[in-house]
Amino acid sequence: MLCYNSDLQQVQGKDPSVDITQELVDESEEERFDDMSSPGLELPPCELGHLEELAELVASSLPSPLRREKLALAVENEGYIRKLLELFRQCEDLENADGLHHLYEIVKGIFLLNRTALFEVMFSEECIMDVIGCLEHDPALDGLPRRHRDFLTKTARFKEVIPIGDPELRAKIHQTYRVQYIQDMVLPTPSVFEENMLSTLHSFIFFNKVEIVGMLQDDEKFLTDLFAQLTDEATDDDKRHELVNFLKEFCAFSQTLQPQNRDTFFKTLSNMGILPALEVILGMDDVQVRGAATDIFSYLVEYNPSMVREFIMQESQQNDDDILLINLIIEHMICDSDPELGGAVQLMGLLRTLVDPENMMATANKTEKTEFLSFFYKHCMHVLSAPLLANTTDDKPSRDDFQTSQLLALILELLTFCVEHHTYHIKNYIINKDILRRVLVLTASQHAFLALCALRFMRRIIGLKDEFYNRYIMKNFLFEPVVKAFLNNGARYNLMNSAIIEMFEYVRVEDVKSLTAHIVENYWKSLEDVDYVQTFKGLKLRYEQQRERQDNPKLDSMRSILRNHRFRRDARTLDDDEEMWFNADEEELEDCEAVVPPSDSKITKASGGAGENEDLMDPISKFMERKKLKDSDDKEVLGKSSSLSGRQSPSFKLSFSGSTTKTSLSSPPASLRPGSPGSGAKGSPPTAATVTTKVGRITRLVSTGTWVVFIRAQQKTFQM
Q1: Where are the alpha helices (DSSP H) in 219-304?
Q2: Which of 266, 274, 612, 700 has most Cβ atoms within 10 angstroms of its Cβ?
Q3: What range(s) does the Serine/threonine-protein phosphatase 4 regulatory subunit 3-like central domain occupy (predicted)?
């Protein structure tokens, strides 16, 4: 064990001969102490001959946070960046490749110092292009520098869609574009450790965008001209395309704003008439323009759907249904030319947000949910369901190609959402337009995803357990296409099989009586041979139990009584009066006789005579005869024990009245008083039996046939 400890200490770098615990000092901590005690970092002279030394100093300082801080302060205080950029111009003129490579490493290291004051110098108008030039000479490129400056000055063109009169705003836009280019294209991809060192660069770009949005928002003339040209019919297509792309970029920049500033931004756009402008743009034939307008519309819906809903309802009072903004959105979703329906998916998500009751507000004067949903089902739902109704006129889909199936699946997804979140609006629409029957036609589609969407739609309806829906399903025999699809699927174990079985299983488990009876009565012969699951047999059993209850209502009522009295008090337990009597003072009971209190049921009927009592007494008499034989033996034993102890064993006699009068079922105390009826004082001669016991102050229960005898025993002898 000692050997093991010494080996472990050697591995840990400790001296095994020293008993005092030794703690290793982290090298970084030593460096920290040295750095704190040392003065500020001294930079070498900014000359061509010292570039290599400076590059090594920057590289060695980056791993230590304190050394990075000191290096940043030294570079900032001595105005080192401008001196380095002067050396860069000299090296380029002299074609000094080694010097350019050292400058690349130095400038890259300065970026990793992560200091805002340095970025402000580097990204200034007079310095930023030289900084980009330094980053063109990466040693890893084998002498083939990148031409980033040529791209920024010759290829990239700044185009003012609307003339910007503020020179500060124009300069800020130029700076932001170039810094974004440096981050995305010029700087090498940062490693995991370097990512955090560029956080200040990200922040610099972020705050620049915030400033640009604020300055544009404050320029009322600029925004007025923008929306005027967007909605002007005389504006040519190229110009409108540029305006829409600018507005899209403008809204994208707004996502960097704080919530309060974002509210102000979108309110400004709303007051300028952005929604009417989008309505005009969405009505154009240019696909790219419509795509940009859709992106702008998505920003507005995500920000404030109530604002969009309010505009749509106000618009309906002036325009026809065909040119409403929301119907234009639905039409673009339906007519999406993309084979993958990328735009349609985006538009369906926007529609879902607009019809979601969860984000609708209710005020004292109006309820947005009621008003908008009434408007939507009156003016828009027929446009949304038109492709579904047009494609399901027969027993199978009219068009079953992939793109059409995808579109119908999107429509079904939105309708399913409406079933879950809308109440009577969607219910009335489905029942009046017979939508479910049309949807179930799609179970015959060759595309499994579309058939499953149809099944999911019906499953959501059944899951509501609404009898209006159930009666509609039964009246139109809408389980027939489901059963047909199940049988056509055969023995294949797939999603179709599982989805249909789960639907029937839900009906069985939830005991939806009307649907259970409908399924068994109409489709049992088609399903009775399915035995790999017990769902259909369970449905048949439910149905038979239901019929049995209908045919025997008394049996059903008896079952309900038994269910209600499942936890009844045991008939043998004492009543409250009996408990009170047994708890009474024992002095009062000293001269009482033990009797047989009646149970909860009548022992004899009023019309019964002595013959019935004799029949009831037969089991008691036989019991007493057997006890006499045992008592004789007990007396001998007790006699011996009493002679030894000098004490008398407690014994008491039981007397049973054979009276022919009706036995009372009243509480025991009345029958337990001396001379009371049933106590043995009157009537026929009692049948007596002596029962010997040693229990004291204990209530015993002896059951004999239909008789229940309560005995309270003491160390005394009771004459009964």
Answers
A1: 220-231, 237-254, 259-272, 274-282, 287-303
A2: 274
A3: 53-545
